[in-house]
Amino acid sequence: MINKVAEYLSREGFYFYEKSFRKFSEDIYIFVVKKANEKSIGLLTQGDFTLSSPYFTERKYLKEIGYYLNLYPLTYENFVILKDKFSIAPSPCNKKVSFGMGDRLGLVTAAHIRAVENYDVFPVLAQQSPRELMKTHRSFKEAILKAILGVLEEGYTGKFGADADHIKDENYLMEAIDAGYTMYTLDLSDMLVKLSDYTESQLKEKAEKLNITSKRIIERFKGKKFVMPTKEAFTVSEEELYKSALTYEKAMDFVEKVYGILKDKVKNFDLEISIDEGDKDTTVEDHIFVAEYLHEKGIDFWSLAPKFPGEFQKAIDYIGDVDKFAVELKKHQFLSREFGGYKLSLHSGSDKFSIYKVFSEITEGEFHIKTSGTSWLQAVNLIFEKDKELFKELYQIALYNLEESKKAYKVLIDKKDFPENINLEDSQIVSKPEIKQLFHISYGVLLEERKKQIFEVLNKYEEEHYEFVRKNIENHFKEIFSK
Ligand SMILES: O=C(O)[C@@H](O)[C@@H](O)[C@H](O)C(=O)CO
């Protein structure tokens, strides 16, 4: 049957994704095809199941196999019809290890799926932040649709998640809920009170005005000594607890509000609390305050992303003292068990090869990691390999707009570190940390200026693009799961 369909569609000028062909029900088969860089879903039916905006205005009857054939765009409307009948929608995590793979271009979900194939990992395939959506001019719905298309293309039948990442306001929250996301990452960084902006007496005054929940937590935990299973111990400082309460109390209101909305509108979801993008390393007091406050309010969160010591810059390895990282991680892991068992989450998780093993060991193989830019960089690597002229143009555009791109991301690089003319003969150039950081943060302006050309190369060499992405994510897993 599959051959007959493939033959017919190839005569019509379509590329047929063989792996996508699967039986949905007794009388419905589904598959994915591509023509002129546009992917569509195909249905073979015997009954009267149809979707909107068919490619063939009349259903083609394929006499030899006795099925009607039609092709459809994967619009949101069509996705809703499909997901109500078949299980193709994202779901909350059901595994100890979960791994976020942002796909800024909406092209490589199939490669992400191939990468997780040999690992016991729950893939979070549609992971997108409003920052990325703005820079790529996409919506939460579009991001989820591209992920679903990849799932169908690869014939993947396992579970997967969709992460509305870095949620800081209600507008994006509602958009993500409407689109059907299953993981919500609340980024509290902009809501944290910067204590250095206040005088001692102002802080004292603020401390007196802390709410009853905060005061109760301070009373309960001040001076408390925790002994970890390793027999290492730490004592909770009252002064630090006050600081934590002053820093985080306001942000807790946001979490409470969002939780209420999510409980009301989404049945099952994973909630991540992210405090990693602030300037300050998360202390044990911060962790205790946030976790206890949320629990007192009845908020059941799934994971917490603290700010660990060291630098977690985009696109490059961890900068810092791995031993110090391990010491702090142990305390956070201990607290995550002590206070009810949620996961620790590692953000800016792309390319942090020197800490994966220790992260996986200390968290006892139960954690979440987020990556995104690392997959976009594979697109850049492919362009470097296939179209040097385009790469050179992208480099120049990125360099010219560096200051603007730096506004959204914390990176080390400075314009003076880069030559005007890049040496295209040097095959190692794309592995240089400063080049990786430059491209990592420049995707917005590059898509703005050269989207058509970028997509042409990536579509032309789709399989090679997938291979770059698969290998790169697999390299992450090799380190994460290394014994
Ligand atoms: O670029 C973004 O906005 C996001 O993909 C990241 O900040 C994400 O949260 C992440 O940590 C991926 O490494």
TrEMBL record:
Protein keywords: Isomerase, Metal-binding
Catalytic reactions of this protein: keto-D-tagaturonate = keto-D-fructuronate
Active site: D165 (proton acceptor), E272 (proton donor)
MF term (GO), any: racemase and epimerase activity, acting on hydroxy acids and derivatives
Coiled-coil regions, chain positions: none
Enzyme class: isomerase
InterPro entries according to UniProt: Aldolase_TIM, UxaE
Binding-site residues, a divalent metal cation: H166, K314, H347
Family: Belongs to the UxaE family.
Function: Catalyzes the epimerization of D-tagaturonate (D-TagA) to D-fructuronate (D-FruA).
Protein name: Tagaturonate/fructuronate epimerase
Gene: uxaE
